[in-house]
Amino acid sequence: MDATILPVIETALLQVSADKGLATARDRLEVMSPQCGFGELGTCCRICYMGPCRIDPFGNGPKTGVCGLTPDAMVARNLLRDTVGGTASHVGHARHVLLTLRDTLKGKAPYQIKGVSKVMSLAKTFDVPTEGREVNDICRDLVNIALEDFGRQDDEQPNNWLSKRAPVAEQALWSKLGLMYSNPHNEIETAMHASSMGNDADPLSLMMRVLKMSLIDGWTGLALCVDLQDILFGVPEIAVTEAAVGVLEENSVNIAAHGHNPVLSEKILEWAEKLEGEALAAGSDGINVVGVCCTGNELSMRHGVKLAAHNSQTELILATGAVDAMVVDIQCIWPQLAQVAKCFDTAFITTDAMVRIPDARHIPFEPHHADESAREIVQTAIEAFRRRRGKPVDIPQLKSTAVAGLSVEAIIDLLSRLDAEDPLKPVLDQVANGNIFGFVGVVGCSSIKFRDNAMTEEMVKHLLRQNVLVLTTGCTAHICAQDGLMTSEATYRYCGEGLRSVLEILGEAAGLGGPLPPVWHMGACVDNSRIVDLMVVLAERLGVKVGQLPAVGSAPELVQEKAVSIGGSFLAMGVSCHIAPAPKVLGGPMVTKLLTEDLQDLLGAVVRVELQPKAAADWMVAHIGEKRAALGI
Amino acid sequence: MEKTVSKTIFTVVENCVACKSCEIACAVEHSCSKTLAGAILETPLPQRRITVEGVGAYSYPSRCQHCSDASCITACPTGAMQRDGNTDAVFSDHDRCIGCWMCVVVCPFGGVTADPVNKKALKCDRCPERTAKGEAPACVSACPTGALLFLTPEEFAAQRRQATAHAAVCGESTTKLNGMDILRSLKGAN
Question: Which ranges does the record mark as transmembrane (chain A) (predicted)?
């Protein structure tokens, strides 16, 4: 058993809440515990009104649902609906960005095309002519290609973003398994239909739907979304930032941007700069926009904006009393935030019609009137500062520097300084000689169930000692940044000799004045497509499939349905995944065996559950070792 | 007349999955309407007398054991805490209870607590209306996994003896791990 270590930052933040007499998620979890075993096993079916039905795992009570649904089919239906939840979230986000880009090109939304290089690289991918054409014209063609994906009713016609963006070798397998898709909306509808009462009851068929839904998440929810966000807001470049609650400033107008969609947060940042004068006139030192959750990652990737909190710290930073406004868009917004904000002068501002929370102030934000809304939001924050000014705040002075902005383009740009002709060669050489033993994509959420044993940080440190390079996104990126794992110092402190030597060479090439950090910040959770894209270019350069690379995915503190569908998209690529906690499938023995063993034959990937950081890292290192052996390195 | 030991509630701890069906059924049984839809609308809200406690990867539905030599009855200064002559269940007469909490103090199981509404002793009464009709107490009927059983001590012991005998003769069961076993072993490593 690993030691119990509550991270220093969590300890300090919990003390701030305790001092104010505020209950936190930890208290609510304690009241909730023990949690229902049927739910944990996935054998509670609430889909129809003959139910709810529950399967007795010990075989004394019900063995099937009232309709006769088997436990395996029950857990598979529930898992499919979880996956739909995750995929629908990402696809909804992607479509919102797509429509914003469309309206920008029509001159109806006040945004610009900042990622011209992305427009050109995507034009190449989608065979869009560029010779002698305006960037906006090329971009319009790309928008139409994307829009076609959302309107097509002919399911035989493959999805553009899947068929043109995903590697060809994998597509052949997906095609054979019936996983190729056309229109994501149709598939979401089909999955909800198939999993409702009296439809698909074959666990294997349902699990194939899970994989298909995950593939939609990977290539429409993630890849399409990130591609278009890069067009609108620019391709991230390496930037140095800071992370943890200590980035809040007592005498500044602190605006915490929370959620996932940079269509909002980019405008907040823009208007914070424009209204700096008003903030100074209000007696502040200026406006301090800080990033929370994944829209925070978006801002830090493109602008080096400081990161204040990951998801499970969102209510805790409000207890500092120093946040003047927390402005939120979509996904992972706890309703509790509005209640904590009420205890202080914090303006808690919802903006999306889909995310309405009682006791929040709602300032509708949509792209056509982005400037007006963003101005009102920033002015609301300045007003909140006026009320707060002079009142005591309690900001734990803890923060770490962190390198962010490692998009695939930024990584290749860095590598080309070592070998302009063949930029990937230096990395592949180091993988071959074992200095880089392998790669782990650490993704997903921060969970209060796993903060007590610092699951993510400790697991990552075990990996680094064994020369595994860590690529991270989402809230696990926040955790790593806060723990100082995105610094040169971490390379010296935690890495094995081989990995350290590689990072020293790369750091020198980057002109960092020290080694490159051993944990690479690749963005928000939607940016998991960047991790996949990096694996794809490495695999293509080597002439192997992604699944053959010495790479594993890990969601060490899974909370959201999105992490389920992201995990599924990794599996579909042939990349095995470690997850914690256990997925809600253990009540179905066949589904459990499928995920943990039989998927190997189907996709070359399996799921592994380990709840302790060292055990998780050990399994991943062993799995990477097997992949290396198969490659003969 | 031959005196036998009455049926009471036994727990098979390994069968509890913490679904808390027993907690809900108990509160409903002690409501006016005796239906879930009605019970949640009542004022005051009906109170449960059984609580599922978590212990690591396991859970345990905890309540009054209806002891034969019940220290709560001995400790009660007003005679409110008494034994039902027919069922042997220990129950508290609210009219006589003064809320001194001596029963709470002496109960080794935490089986007596305080009713937040009338500030008097609150405990399992083993569902006299149900058992009078030959039904099991509400918690036992609601348990979907057989973690709660309504048996005489002799019947419960006989079940255990049979299981032990079976294991001695046929060897330990080698049935495959079920999902709950896997979940517990994962959590147990924590």
Answer: none
Calculate the average pLDDT of chain A: 96
In this structure, what DSSP letter does residue A526 have?
Answer: G
CA-based angle B19:B20:B25, to the nearest 5? 130
Q: Which among A58, A61, A453 has the least Cβ separation from residue B178? A: A58
Contact A612 B17 (CB under 8 A): no
| Token pair in block for residue A70 | 């088997």
* Nearest CB to B186; choose among A35, A62, A582: A582
- In single-letter form, the type of residue at position B186 comes to L
ipTM above 0.85, yes or no: no
Measure in Å the smallest separation between the Cα of B52 and chain A Cα atoms. Answer: 7
Question: Using CB atoms, which residue from A1, A33, A36 is nearest to B189?
Answer: A1
- Give the domain B65-121 fold: Alpha-Beta Plaits (3.30.70)
According to the model, what pLDDT value does residue A520 have?
Answer: 98
A31 CB neighbours in chain B (<8 A) are none
Q: How far is CA A228 from CA A89, A161, A473, A524, B63, in A?
A: 16, 12, 18, 14, 59
Q: Check residue A489 and give its pLDDT.
A: 96
Quick: pLDDT tens for A469-481.
999 999 999 999 9
* Residue A345: predicted pLDDT: 86
Q: Do A41 and B15 touch (CB under 8 A)?
A: no
Q: Does A193 count as an annotated binding residue? A: no
d(Cα A607, Cα A336) in Å, to the nearest integer? 33
For the stretch A95-152, pLDDT in tens is 999 999 999 999 999 999 999 999 999 999 999 999 999 999 999 999 999 999 999 9
Question: What are the structural domains, with CATH classification, of chain A?
Answer: 36-69 (no CATH), 71-233 (1.20.1270.30), 245-388 (3.40.50.2030), 417-631 (3.40.50.2030)
Hey, what CATH class is B3-63+124-190 in?
Answer: alpha beta
